[in-house]
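Minutes, project check-in
Item: structure for the 582-residue chain
Input as provided by the requester:
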Amino acid sequence: MEKTVTLTIDDQEVKVPEGTTILQAAKQAGIDIPTLCFLKDINEVGDCRMCIVEVEGRRGFATSCIQKVEEGMVVHTHTPNVLEARHVILDLIISNHKVDCLTCTRSGNCELQQLARKFNVTQIEFDGEKSQHKIDELSPSIVRDFNKCILCRRCIATCKNVQNIGAIDCINRGFDSCISTVGDFSLNNVNCTFCGQCIQSCPTGALHEKETIDDVWIKLKDPDSIVIVQTAPAVRAALGEEFGMEVGTNVTGKMVTALKRLGFDKVFDTNTGADFTIMEEANEFIDRFANGGVLPMITSCSPGWVKYIEMNYPELLPHLSTCKSPHQMFGALLKTYYAEKEEIDQSKIYVVSVMPCIAKKFERQRKEMTNEGMYDVDNVITTRELARMIKQANIEFTKLEDTNFDSPMGEATGAAAIFGTTGGVMEAALRTAQDTLTGKDLDKIDFEAVRGGEGIKKATVKIADTEMKVVAASGLANAQKIMEEIKSGKADYQFVEIMACPGGCVMGGGQPIKSSKERAEKDIRKLRADCLYSIDEKSVIRKSHENPIVKKIYKDYLEKPGSHKAHELLHTHYEKREKYDI
């Protein structure tokens, strides 16, 4: 039986399991203790001291996020001494902070700003010299402005403990301390994968995506440009959060309406591109499986993961699928098949991808993602950037009516929708692979063994009387475990799905940022993933190979999956990349 501890917090008796922290016990009692550096299960170090409390019989303050409860302990969370100390701590933090809140990308969603309001910090009492740091803008994905950094170390903990990358750490000492990279070089030149999980962890605007919406606005105003937008599956499961809607609300129809009002000439669905990815990936897997190709085959949809393997396991690159990611495939088809069909000069087409992922900004400008000298995709904006555009246009998002994607490139299946969550790519591919191998339209299409929030999910699936071992991993620390198994020869998988972000695209670096409190109280990943699974379940067509537009394009243009034309447009290659280009 679990041993419990009884204590008193603000005159309330609380019973909690032994080993519980004061912060956790207070939460159970409905008592809020402010935090700043705390990030549940990731950064629990007590550095910022915002969560201090008084414990009767003890000198000084206790740091509630790390202090374990004890039998009979009496805790006070808001005495005059505690409130004054918190106020001083906030004053000191803000005194060395770049106070440009009106123009900061995190204004209104900044944990430091929220605490300043909560504790009525209306002026800086400790005004003096401020640290001055250069702004790192060299990366195509991430901007670092450590003049806004509060040294909470949440980004470090995420990069090290969740992703096992360690691209950033605290350098220098005392007043000159800052979060930076090896040699204080740009993130563009070190082992950063551009996954953006550091941005999701940052409580202020010290880390943010490299915004490119101004380029989109310019193109939207250009009468000679045909601006086509495509939206990834995970975007529709999270965009509503930027407008006060519940986590996991499906806003597909409102999103399409908003994009049309913004002035895009065509609004298409990246899910259509995902259906093409499944067709090509399933065909590639079947070919490797049947003809002695390199196994296990590993998915290549996540650009942060691709950059990771290029830097850390270049000898295992032959295991990667050669398929481009869905939005890159779709961009290539828009500038070839669609341009020819609609008799449009392809040089006038400007493709914008709305993605949950900031690594897509890096991916789209890779030299491999071109055809006849033109990029497949011209601009990538995040879910957050799209929300900013909608707000700039003064569109009342929650009041919008629902409209449908434009035809014919807006038709997609339920299989494509689940691409946005961990295990979804594999499940979608298995649906098509099993029908192809058996020659039957099978009813069993839900591969629930690869679903769920676990970082690594292993399963054995039976297809056409053949047992196949598969694994889905999300988060780069988990990816490393799988890669080490493959490298050592211990792995006996045939198919591997890897996503750079823990939980998959629904938790991408470009998604709405949730505070540490929200992350502790809600299972954000599950709520967003459930939204996508619901879309799949309600879809009339749930297998990629049954998508009418996919069938038509193969018949009229690509011939068949794996054809020469398909390889020319929809496949690519990868190569060794140095971790440190310094």
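Outcome recorded: The longest strand covers residues 466-474.
No further action items on this chain.
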